[in-house]
Amino acid sequence: MATMDVAIVSIDGSIWSGEGTSVTGTTVNGEMGILPGRQPILAEMAEVGVVTVRTDDDDYLVFAVTGGLLSCTGDRVTIIAEHAYPAEDFSEAELRQELESLPDTATEQEKVILQAKLRAAQRLSHAQG
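Above: the chain sequence. Below: its structure as tokens.
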């Protein structure tokens, strides 16, 4: 099975890197799927986004991302996000509660990060279900 190098980085550093058989990401133009050998592309990530990597072990890794760029060169996909978080690190129920109890003084960035995490947690639960 063909694979490609995948790297997800944020302003906080490297989040994940490894081999993947496919990558799906939320861009400003909608969901984009990438398979090995794809023509080069550069796309702007959505402010509230999700990246899913299917590994060669047939596992799904899901990440919450906020903004940034998706770059594909055919054999390498790089997600350069403002913020990126593995979905396995948080629970959907806790995120819903945190969003509901978010104070009015919360910044827009805090809201965006929580929304991205919630979408990623939902995608992860669907991938595992």
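Helices lie at 92-100, 108-128.
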